[in-house]
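As a warm-up, study this chain.
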Amino acid sequence: MNAIKKFGGVIIYGNKNCNVRMLACDKAKCGAVTTTRKNENEINELIVYVINTTRKSENEVQKIKCDVKNTTRNEENERNEIKHQDFTAKFDGKKWTASWNWNKEPVIDNTICEYKMNQEHERSYRKEIREWIDSGILVPYNELILGPPKVLIPLMCVVQENKDKKVRPVGDFRALNEFVNCHTANADVCQEKLRCSRKIKNAKILDLKKAYLQIHIDKKLWPYQTVIINGQRYCFTRMCFGINVAPTIMTTILRHVLNSNPTVKKACDNYIDDIFVDKNLEQGRVLGLRVERNKNGELIWKQDNVVQFESLNAVTRSQLFSQLGKLIGHYPVAGSLRLQASYIKRLAGNIPWCDFISEDCKEKLKELLYRVEKEDPVGGKWLVPVNGKAKLYCDTSSIGLGVVLLIGGVVVEDAAWLRPVSDSHHINISELDSILRGLNLASKWGIKELTVYSDSKSTVGWLNAVLKEEYRVKTWGISQLLVQRRLNTIKEVAKDIQIAVQWIPSEINLADRLSRIPQKWCRAVCAAGLLEQKDIWKTHSIGHLGVARTLQLCLQNNQNVSRKEVSAVIANCNQCNSIDPYSVKWKNGQLSVEKNWNRVAIDVTHVDAELYLSMIDCGPSRYTI
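Now compare it with the structure written out below.
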């Protein structure tokens, strides 16, 4: 039975099963209510005690209203202002204005206005500059208001291959970036965002148009980003692409806006200026990948930039790294392309960036580009089945390590690493390293049940013994500690991931191809290694060490030096032969002769304190004196 009573502006509401609730009907009154029940029979009898209330004065009421208004205004300012360790940003109701922090006052002496550009792109470049001036992105610099200019930013022309070769003017902020605070520890990683987006069945990408140029820059920073166009000085009023802190500012502001609405926060995510929304993805670009549907109607991804084979006459080290970077990039699946590209980079050596690479390195680059043009290994299915189960294929060779991760029978990601030149670990230790790196890759996908496949019987036996605790793994030698440390690490990972290990032959190991390079590349390197006797002699002459130590030092510079080559060099070292003669096997022969006294064997010996000379005839007489 419910009961409603009113006491001096306070409404009392009660029922049989719960305590009485108090509702204030006057803003100026407040009070506390307690209830008691005598017994179960007296259901309708409620004793209500109401504490006497007092009315506040009208001045106090007005004061409360002012406090409420101030609190609301402060909360609104907090919502429209972002304070970061590298920058501050404010929203005035129409636009966002950002201001970055300096680590020290910039001092830059630059006189270059524009870099040289191709005449083919200059017309589009000038048109884009004119649009910037008309839209207020670039404004004439006024020294009376802004003071003397502090920094001159050089402009250059950049052609966007993946956007129909659109020409974009870009400022060279490399010198200025040395003075701008930029903490990237919490920055988003492109590969992590790709993994998250590939798990979503219904997802679509919204790319903000000219996102960077929509953020205004505080006027106090205008003197630090001035440019000279046709003899007149302008300054940027918007945030430019090229400043090291620009991605952080863009990401933080966009995420702040999306998180202001709880519904929008749940329905979308962002990576810099790309917004992920919950809608069907038919085709488009997703973080540098081209996503489209194949003939079967399945979503697939592939390289956004079409790689075309071009004749390469003279290639610098900088051009080499740029070309190979476009081939592999941040793509989830690249097959054997990763290791081969890294191997060509190593062959280029540590020459300056502007120097030309060798003919051998250039031929390998041409061969690699030709194979990619015929059959590009970069690509795969876009949607990844999320079931918590996966298969991991691992393999190791003398050149590198490779892993392939399969989820639901789909190759979702692979990776390959080139072994260091000075790596002298046993092959079984390197097999454990590849499995560890594969486990690290699988953990990023949230895998709970993992089956590891390897073609090394020793490694599979060790892991099964550790994971199943069937018997104790016994290792000897100098690598005992290295093996135990890797096995213990895998055992710790197995506490969070259910791991099963199986042996497979190399013929069906999907990672076998990722850990190898063409055989003719190895033969060419080995043939060139036979002519490195001068380098071996230079290394040996440092301390005239033995064969083993000289070989160890030579392997740090050239992994293809053999023990036979080192032995041949040391055998001809006069200094080593004079101090400690190099071991030489004598030819077997006879000391005896047919006639007496044609050959005499002489020896000096001592008895007590006296020396004696002995001579033995090697003829038939064997006469001794």
